[in-house]
Amino acid sequence: MSASLPTPEQKTILVTGATGGVGRGVALACAQAGWSVWIAARREAEGNAVAAELDAAGGIGHFIQCDVGNRDSAQAAVAAALGKDGRLDGVVHNATSGLSPVPVALAEVSLADLQDHVNVALRALHALAEASFDALSASRGSLLLMTSEAGFEGKAKLPPYAGVKGAQRGFARALAREWGPHGVRVNSLAPLASTPAMERAFDLDPAMAGRVLGRNPLRRLGDSTQDIGRAARFLLSEDASYVTGHTLMVDGGSCPAV
User: Does the model's pTM come out above 0.70?
Assistant: First the structure.
């Protein structure tokens, strides 16, 4: 963790589930702008490694151990960022259930597995929103939800994942209306990126790669930092000061249901 403090020109951002994949890409893109970025995740070694990457990228990296599905843990993560940096300009909820890429028919989804999806995607979102509202209102900041095209069109064999991602978009629309008068923007971003989770999904369902890339006009998966992270950084920045309640598709044109 860097001992430096952010300058008035820098933003302080908290990103959940950013020890790898898209979350790491978002964190790196924000660090490249010189921002102070807090990695809120469970895995300490991986989180500290990403924090060091953020320092090397030109930002200020921090790790705070956090189980986002736990209300007290979410509040502690927000408090840590405020205690160190004195403000919070953005929260990115990227964490997803470890079951997200596992193909399963709806009839075979256990209640415990469904609850895990709901806990990480929705209960954690509620906890983060509750914990961060005052700080985001003070900074006129932004809440960004990393959702999925699955929440638009559904995904065969991924019904719990598609369900919670669709619910996140509804949550974002409602919060955008509720928080707008307080100067807080709320948006979603639906990425299609090359990540360990995507690679695992392709391994578990070999036909999936053909389905995904076959309908992608750009014929490639996005890069987590250059493609997805920069788009997320835009939504967190002043360049998007008049954008709220929106879901930005960053998927190479794959999803027609927008």
Answer: yes
